[in-house]
Amino acid sequence: MSVNAVAREPRVLPAAPPREPRRRLEPVTGTPARRKPKLAYALMAVAGAMAIGAAQIGLSLAITQDSFVLAGLSSQQHELDLRTDALQEDLTGLSSPQSLASSAADLGMVVAGSPSYIRLSDGAIFGAGSGASGASTVDPNGAGAVSNALLNDVPVNASTEDDATPEHPTQELPPAITDGLPSPSTR
To answer: pLDDT tens across 101-121, in order?
Structure first.
C-alpha cells in the first residue's frame, strides 16, 4: 500500500477569535456639559471656615486678655506681699519687750519691787502690801539699753505724736521692675 493511497483526513485549524469592530479615534470638538455645582454646599463650606476662624480669633483674644489680667493681679499681689511683710516687721518691733517697757516708762509706769497677792475669799493681802515708789530701778531708755533695729524708724509711743502725722506711717516700697532686671551696660 502506498502512502498516497491512504486517505488523509483534513486538518482542522483552530477557530480565530471573533474580532470586535475597531474603534475610531476622533478629536474632541467641544467640552462636555458640566453639572452646575450646588450653591448651598459652597456657602456652607465658606461659612464653616469663617466660623472656625472667628472662634480661633475669639479664643486667642480671650486667652491674651486673661494673661494681662493675671499679670496685673500678680503684680498687685507682689506689692501687697511686700506691704504685709513691712507691716509685720513693724508689728514685731512694736510688740517687743523693749518697746513695751519703753512705752510703759513714757506713760509713767514704774517697776514695782516684789509682787503682792490678794486672797479673794477674805481680802487679805500677801507680800509687801505697798504701792511702788515714784522712781523705777529699771530705766528702759537709759544708757545701758540695747538698741532694737526694728524700732529705728518707728515712734516709741504713737499716742504722744501730734495729730498732724498719719496714724499708720507709709513705708516706701522698692521700685517696681517693669523693664526687667537691672544690668550693667556692656559694649
So the answer is: 888 888 878 776 677 888 899
Question: How many structural domains are present in the chain?
Answer: 1
* Domain boundaries, position 62: 44-82
55: in domain: yes
Q: Which three cell numbers stand for residue 48?
A: 464653616
- Check: CB of residue 141 under 8 Å from CB of residue 100: no
> 76 in a domain, yes or no?
yes
What confidence score (pLDDT) does residue 74 get?
Answer: 93
The verdict on residue 18 lying in a domain is no
φ, ψ at 43 (rounded to 5°): -65, -40
Is the residue at 67 inside a domain? yes
Nearest to 126 by CA among 116, 135, 136, 134: 116
Nearest to 150 by CA among 73, 78, 96, 76: 96
Residue ranges in the chain modelled with pLDDT below 50: 156, 158-164
Question: What angle is formed at CA 184 by the lines to CA 179 and CA 187, rounded to 5 degrees?
Answer: 110
